Amino acid sequence: MLLELRIKNFAIIDVLNLSFSKGFNILTGETGAGKSIILNAVHLLLGDKATEEGIRSSEEEASVEALFNVSENLEVQEKIKEKAPSLSGSGEEDSLLIRRVIARSGRGKVFINGNLATLGSLSEFGEELLSIYGQHEHQSLQRVETHIDILDEFGGLLGLRETFQKQYQEFVSVSEELGKIQAEKERRAKERELMAFQSKEMRLQDFKSEKRNL
Questions:
Q1: Does domain 2-142 have CATH number 3.30.450.20?
Q2: What pTM, to 2 d.p., does this model score?
Q3: Per-residue DSSP letters for 69-98?
Protein backbone atom coordinates (compact mmCIF):
# COMPACT_ATOMS: atom_id res chain seq x y z
CA MET A 1 0.00 0.00 0.00
CA LEU A 2 1.32 3.42 -0.99
CA LEU A 3 1.49 5.69 2.08
CA GLU A 4 3.55 8.71 1.04
CA LEU A 5 4.70 10.17 -2.27
CA ARG A 6 7.23 13.00 -2.55
CA ILE A 7 8.15 14.59 -5.87
CA LYS A 8 10.84 17.23 -6.18
CA ASN A 9 11.98 19.29 -9.19
CA PHE A 10 10.10 17.12 -11.66
CA ALA A 11 8.62 18.85 -14.74
CA ILE A 12 6.67 21.85 -13.39
CA ILE A 13 6.60 20.51 -9.81
CA ASP A 14 8.83 22.22 -7.28
CA VAL A 15 8.03 20.10 -4.23
CA LEU A 16 4.91 17.99 -3.81
CA ASN A 17 4.03 15.76 -0.85
CA LEU A 18 1.05 13.43 -1.04
CA SER A 19 -0.33 11.17 1.69
CA PHE A 20 -2.66 8.27 0.95
CA SER A 21 -5.08 6.56 3.30
CA LYS A 22 -6.26 2.98 3.22
CA GLY A 23 -9.00 2.44 0.70
CA PHE A 24 -9.94 4.48 -2.34
CA ASN A 25 -7.98 7.68 -3.02
CA ILE A 26 -8.79 10.14 -5.81
CA LEU A 27 -6.69 12.86 -7.45
CA THR A 28 -8.83 15.42 -9.25
CA GLY A 29 -8.11 18.67 -11.06
CA GLU A 30 -8.67 20.53 -14.28
CA THR A 31 -6.66 19.88 -17.41
CA GLY A 32 -3.10 21.04 -16.93
CA ALA A 33 -3.22 20.79 -13.14
CA GLY A 34 -0.44 18.17 -13.15
CA LYS A 35 -2.25 14.84 -12.70
CA SER A 36 -0.39 13.24 -15.62
CA ILE A 37 2.92 14.62 -14.33
CA ILE A 38 2.32 12.85 -11.02
CA LEU A 39 1.66 9.59 -12.88
CA ASN A 40 4.78 10.08 -14.99
CA ALA A 41 6.77 10.53 -11.79
CA VAL A 42 5.27 7.35 -10.37
CA HIS A 43 6.30 5.53 -13.55
CA LEU A 44 9.91 6.20 -12.57
CA LEU A 45 9.33 4.02 -9.48
CA LEU A 46 8.39 1.18 -11.83
CA GLY A 47 11.74 1.37 -13.58
CA ASP A 48 10.76 3.48 -16.58
CA LYS A 49 13.49 5.19 -18.57
CA ALA A 50 14.33 8.67 -17.28
CA THR A 51 15.37 11.64 -19.40
CA GLU A 52 16.66 15.07 -18.46
CA GLU A 53 13.51 16.60 -19.98
CA GLY A 54 11.73 15.49 -16.82
CA ILE A 55 13.95 17.69 -14.65
CA ARG A 56 12.55 21.10 -13.76
CA SER A 57 14.23 23.94 -15.60
CA SER A 58 17.14 25.57 -13.72
CA GLU A 59 17.58 22.41 -11.61
CA GLU A 60 20.23 19.73 -11.98
CA GLU A 61 18.36 16.87 -10.34
CA ALA A 62 14.83 15.61 -9.83
CA SER A 63 13.67 12.94 -7.43
CA VAL A 64 10.66 10.78 -6.71
CA GLU A 65 10.30 9.09 -3.34
CA ALA A 66 7.59 6.72 -2.13
CA LEU A 67 6.91 4.95 1.14
CA PHE A 68 4.97 1.68 1.07
CA ASN A 69 3.45 -0.53 3.74
CA VAL A 70 4.27 -4.09 2.63
CA SER A 71 3.20 -5.91 5.81
CA GLU A 72 0.70 -7.95 3.75
CA ASN A 73 2.85 -8.34 0.65
CA LEU A 74 4.85 -11.54 1.16
CA GLU A 75 6.48 -11.32 -2.28
CA VAL A 76 7.97 -7.90 -1.54
CA GLN A 77 9.06 -8.97 1.95
CA GLU A 78 11.02 -11.83 0.40
CA LYS A 79 12.64 -9.41 -2.05
CA ILE A 80 13.60 -7.10 0.82
CA LYS A 81 15.33 -10.01 2.55
CA GLU A 82 17.10 -10.84 -0.71
CA LYS A 83 18.06 -7.32 -1.83
CA ALA A 84 18.54 -5.71 1.61
CA PRO A 85 19.47 -8.52 4.05
CA SER A 86 20.60 -5.98 6.70
CA LEU A 87 16.94 -5.08 7.23
CA SER A 88 15.78 -8.65 7.75
CA GLY A 89 14.63 -9.18 11.31
CA SER A 90 14.87 -5.46 12.15
CA GLY A 91 11.13 -4.92 11.89
CA GLU A 92 11.69 -2.58 8.94
CA GLU A 93 10.82 -5.25 6.39
CA ASP A 94 7.17 -4.16 6.76
CA SER A 95 8.06 -0.80 5.19
CA LEU A 96 9.65 -0.08 1.85
CA LEU A 97 11.13 3.27 0.89
CA ILE A 98 12.01 3.74 -2.76
CA ARG A 99 13.82 6.80 -4.11
CA ARG A 100 14.71 7.53 -7.72
CA VAL A 101 17.01 10.40 -8.65
CA ILE A 102 17.50 11.57 -12.22
CA ALA A 103 20.27 14.01 -13.12
CA ARG A 104 21.21 16.08 -16.14
CA SER A 105 24.61 14.42 -16.04
CA GLY A 106 22.87 11.14 -16.77
CA ARG A 107 24.12 9.59 -13.55
CA GLY A 108 20.82 8.74 -11.96
CA LYS A 109 20.53 6.74 -8.76
CA VAL A 110 18.13 4.29 -7.19
CA PHE A 111 17.75 3.73 -3.46
CA ILE A 112 15.75 0.95 -1.80
CA ASN A 113 15.33 1.43 1.95
CA GLY A 114 18.33 3.74 1.86
CA ASN A 115 20.54 1.21 0.07
CA LEU A 116 21.94 1.98 -3.37
CA ALA A 117 20.30 -0.39 -5.85
CA THR A 118 20.12 -1.11 -9.57
CA LEU A 119 17.36 -0.13 -11.96
CA GLY A 120 16.68 -3.83 -12.47
CA SER A 121 16.01 -4.30 -8.76
CA LEU A 122 13.67 -1.31 -8.83
CA SER A 123 11.71 -2.87 -11.68
CA GLU A 124 11.36 -6.11 -9.71
CA PHE A 125 9.91 -4.26 -6.73
CA GLY A 126 7.73 -2.03 -8.90
CA GLU A 127 5.99 -5.02 -10.49
CA GLU A 128 4.86 -6.20 -7.05
CA LEU A 129 3.94 -2.78 -5.67
CA LEU A 130 2.00 -0.85 -8.29
CA SER A 131 -0.32 -1.42 -11.21
CA ILE A 132 -1.29 1.55 -13.35
CA TYR A 133 -4.41 0.88 -15.35
CA GLY A 134 -4.30 2.87 -18.55
CA GLN A 135 -2.57 2.77 -21.91
CA HIS A 136 0.75 1.73 -20.45
CA GLU A 137 2.99 -1.31 -20.39
CA HIS A 138 2.60 -1.78 -16.63
CA GLN A 139 -1.00 -3.05 -16.92
CA SER A 140 -0.91 -6.24 -14.87
CA LEU A 141 -4.42 -7.23 -16.01
CA GLN A 142 -3.12 -7.51 -19.58
CA ARG A 143 -0.22 -9.77 -18.62
CA VAL A 144 -1.37 -13.36 -19.00
CA GLU A 145 1.16 -14.59 -16.45
CA THR A 146 -0.59 -12.60 -13.69
CA HIS A 147 -4.10 -13.95 -14.30
CA ILE A 148 -3.70 -17.10 -12.20
CA ASP A 149 -2.30 -15.05 -9.31
CA ILE A 150 -5.28 -12.68 -9.43
CA LEU A 151 -7.75 -15.58 -9.44
CA ASP A 152 -6.01 -17.44 -6.62
CA GLU A 153 -5.80 -14.29 -4.50
CA PHE A 154 -9.49 -13.54 -5.10
CA GLY A 155 -10.40 -17.09 -4.09
CA GLY A 156 -8.19 -17.01 -1.00
CA LEU A 157 -6.13 -19.87 -2.38
CA LEU A 158 -2.59 -18.47 -2.14
CA GLY A 159 -1.83 -20.34 1.08
CA LEU A 160 -3.25 -23.60 -0.29
CA ARG A 161 -1.31 -23.10 -3.53
CA GLU A 162 1.93 -22.64 -1.62
CA THR A 163 1.28 -25.84 0.35
CA PHE A 164 0.51 -27.71 -2.88
CA GLN A 165 3.69 -26.42 -4.52
CA LYS A 166 5.79 -27.65 -1.59
CA GLN A 167 4.13 -31.07 -1.64
CA TYR A 168 4.50 -31.30 -5.41
CA GLN A 169 8.20 -30.45 -5.16
CA GLU A 170 8.58 -33.20 -2.54
CA PHE A 171 6.73 -35.60 -4.87
CA VAL A 172 9.02 -34.71 -7.78
CA SER A 173 12.09 -35.17 -5.57
CA VAL A 174 10.91 -38.59 -4.34
CA SER A 175 9.97 -39.62 -7.89
CA GLU A 176 13.43 -38.68 -9.16
CA GLU A 177 15.06 -40.65 -6.33
CA LEU A 178 12.83 -43.65 -7.06
CA GLY A 179 13.75 -43.40 -10.74
CA LYS A 180 17.45 -43.48 -9.83
CA ILE A 181 16.92 -46.54 -7.62
CA GLN A 182 15.00 -48.36 -10.36
CA ALA A 183 17.66 -47.46 -12.94
CA GLU A 184 20.38 -48.78 -10.62
CA LYS A 185 18.39 -51.95 -10.03
CA GLU A 186 18.02 -52.51 -13.78
CA ARG A 187 21.73 -51.84 -14.32
CA ARG A 188 22.70 -54.42 -11.73
CA ALA A 189 20.25 -56.95 -13.19
CA LYS A 190 21.84 -56.51 -16.62
CA GLU A 191 25.29 -56.93 -15.09
CA ARG A 192 24.18 -60.17 -13.44
CA GLU A 193 22.77 -61.44 -16.73
CA LEU A 194 26.00 -60.56 -18.51
CA MET A 195 28.11 -62.23 -15.85
CA ALA A 196 25.88 -65.31 -15.96
CA PHE A 197 26.19 -65.46 -19.75
CA GLN A 198 29.96 -65.01 -19.62
CA SER A 199 30.23 -67.69 -16.92
CA LYS A 200 28.17 -70.08 -19.03
CA GLU A 201 30.35 -69.40 -22.07
CA MET A 202 33.52 -70.02 -20.03
CA ARG A 203 32.17 -73.35 -18.73
CA LEU A 204 31.21 -74.33 -22.27
CA GLN A 205 34.71 -73.53 -23.51
CA ASP A 206 36.25 -75.53 -20.66
CA PHE A 207 33.99 -78.48 -21.49
CA LYS A 208 34.95 -78.33 -25.17
CA SER A 209 38.64 -78.17 -24.27
CA GLU A 210 38.36 -81.20 -21.96
CA LYS A 211 36.49 -83.12 -24.65
CA ARG A 212 39.21 -82.44 -27.22
CA ASN A 213 41.88 -83.54 -24.80
CA LEU A 214 40.10 -86.85 -24.37
A1: no
A2: 0.54
A3: E-TT-HHHHHHHHHH-GGGTTTTGGGEEEE
